[in-house]
Amino acid sequence: MIPRKFWLPLFAVVMLVVPVLPVPEFWITQLNYIGLYAIVSLGLVLLTGVAGLTSFGQAAFVGVGAYTSAYLSVSLGVSPWLTLFIGLVLAVAVALVLGALTLRMSGHYLPLATIAWGLALNYTMANMEFLGKYDGILGVPPITLFGASLAGGREMYWLIWVVALAAALAITHLLDSRPGRAIRALKSGSTMAEAMGISTFRYKLTAFLLAAMLASVSGWLFAHFQRTVNPSPFGLNKGIEFLFMAVLGGVGHVWGAFTGAAVVKIVEDELQVLLPQLIGTSGNFEVIVFGLVLILVLKYAPDGLWTFVQRWLPAPKRVRDWADAAPLPARDKPAPGSLLLDVKAVRKEFGGLVAVNDVSFTIHAGDIMGLIGPNGAGKSTTFNLITGVLSLTRGEVSFRGQAVGGLASREIARRGMSRTFQHVKMIPEMTVLENVALGGYLRTGSGTLKAMLRLDREEEKRLFAEAERQLARIGMVGQMHELAGNLALGPQRLMEIARALCTDPALLLLDEPAAGLRLKEKQALADVLRQLKAEGLSILLVEHDMDFVMGLVDHIVVMEFGTRLIAGTPAEVQASPVVRAAYLGTEH
Ligand code: ADP
Ligand code: MG
Question: Is residue 513 part of a domain?
């Protein structure tokens, strides 16, 4: 078996050798279109497959690149190499405006918005006098490279496929990087990513801009390959077709974009010949066939055709190459015994329900504080108020002497609070190690371009060394290469703790870490927490399991119906008749 790292170079060599072989012109043309479509689909893999943002409007960005270059090179005689960059700048500008307006939309609104702007951009192209209206622009000059004119299909082939392969490589690199993991985290909702310090909007916009840029480059190539542009290839039906290619090929995989582009282009041509013969009249019947095929694919192969190929390939394995990596920067730790967290009369109302009723308490550095109370007492809500996941109705929280009430959760994370979730939040299709590495986001800084160019490897080693160290701290090194989604609940909860530790927190907040664990797992968890305390970490532990908490914590706050019932040492709390009546009464 050929080692995995040679596949892409091998594929590249095969693809780039094609035009010097006696391949008929027809197939060169087909491959040119496949390359052009694959570039657009690659953007959709990133945007829709990885980030979870469905766009029907990518064809409009192809049009932006194509029209910009056609107009400027025909009317003003600008060099196509310059128009490439002007097209890219224009596509980015349009995407920035559209992204700012639409990317905060949730659910079905975003796809609907992409249809709207896809149509709008296409009508603009079709109705502008200077763009030739529906006739478009004729006589687009060929691209010249090192003095040679790329006028023929074979010459354009090189350029198209160099761009397509380079784009595939860049996206592959990106997906395995700090910004790539942030983009991969978007699909699972924003709460966890934001709690790790990631601006989810920023990465949605990044994916959107990259997809628009890929489409624009494809349009540029398209204009100079066809040597003419008109509005019809940039309409909504083409936008739907691009999405269809990505979904059919495998919208979660870089190579799915190529698979989808190839299958759709070839089958479409066959059907355009075959269907009129069968039906006896001409028309765009292939659209109907594609619609049916899409339904079948979504039902029987929702991850696309590429997964059938991938099944026969060995799974990628991360090489453990970080043994001697330098440690990541660490934060100044609070002095033991100093006031760390001051919660002052925080209140949360959900409509008429007072979920948290003016609750106050403090945590000092080095302490484990238990926040207990029956289900529905308002513990998680209090927790979310402190960590900025929910906004305060009233009250104030200060952390290390700074007011943090009203800050976004990622800002609070930056100041040194890190948390787990009552319902485990993770990226199931990432490995345990990658999930934990998400916690190191704020301690690293590589951006998108650096990642695509693979200039981030040193920092990645440091990050993975840190992630492994945190997994060792909780005894999970053995499972670091497993997919997080395959773990049982107990290890998943521990993994969340390792992820929180990877942020190098000054205060660790755990929301019911023992819930759903077996007795043995609970004991192991208690050992881990004791060890963390011995290392000087401060912890806020939310729990409704009294027995678990009692032997572990220094102080306890008991809540019931949103109100603080009593606070004190475990012994004081256990002795309190109020707690016995209220808490134990409901629990036992
Ligand atoms: P606990 O974590 O102690 O079990 P919670 O803080 O989750 O309790 O919930 C406290 C109360 O607030 C419950 O009555 C719950 O139904 C209500 N609540 C929690 N979150 C919301 C929300 N987003 N909208 C409306 N009510 C909520
Ligand atoms: Mg809760």
Answer: yes
Write the CATH number for 573.
3.40.50.300
Contact 409, 194 (CB under 8 A): yes
Pocket of ligand 1 (CB under 6 A): 350, 353, 355, 373, 375-381
Atom 7 of ligand 1, nearest CA residue: 380
Instruction: Report yes or no on 18 lying in a domain.
Output: no
- What number of other Cβ atoms are within 10 A of residue 364's Cβ? 18
Query: 143 with 233, same domain?
Result: yes
Domain with 471 in it: 431-502
Query: Ligand 1, residues 381, 546, 558: which to mutate, most atoms within 8 A of Cβ?
Result: 381
Closest by CA to 431, choosing from 388, 481, 466, 472, is: 481
pTM of the predicted model as reported, rounded to 2 decimal places: 0.93
Classify each residue of 169-194 as buried b or exposed e, where b means 16 or more C-beta atoms within 10 Å of its C-beta: bbbbbbbbbbbbbbbbbbbbebebbb
- Ligand 2 centroid, distance to 192 Cα (angstroms): 16
Atom of ligand 1 nearest to the CA of 382: 6
Q: How far is the CA of 374 from the centre of ligand 2 (A)?
A: 9
Task: Say how many Å lie between the CA of residue 562 and the centre of ligand 1.
Answer: 9
Domain count across the chain = 3
**Ligand 1: nearest atom to the Cα of 348:** 12
Distance 520 CA to ligand 2 centre (A): 22
CATH number of the domain that residue 210 is part of: 1.10.3470
Phi, psi (rounded to 5 degrees) for 368: -110, 120
Q: Which residues of the chain have pLDDT under 70?
A: 1, 582-588
Q: Are the beta carbons of 566 and 573 closer than 8 angstroms?
A: yes
Task: Tell me the pairing of strands 417-419 and 507-511.
Answer: parallel
Q: Which of 362, 361, 418, 422 is nearest to 388 (CA)?
A: 418
Other CB atoms within a 10 A radius of the CB of residue 310 amount to 17
Residue 582 lies in a domain: yes
Q: How far apart are CA 353 and CA 348, in angstroms?
A: 8
Question: How far is residue 209's CA from residue 523's CA, in Å, rounded to a whole number?
Answer: 48
For the stretch 37-83, pLDDT in tens is 999 999 999 999 999 999 999 999 999 999 999 999 999 999 999 99
- Can you say how many angstroms the Cα of residue 415 is from the centroid of all Cα atoms in its chain? 23
Residue whose CA is at the smallest distance from ligand 1 atom 14: 376
DSSP for 435-447, please give it.
HHHHTTGGG----
For residue 7, being part of any structural domain is answered with no
**Statement to judge: residues 260 and 357 lie in one domain:** no
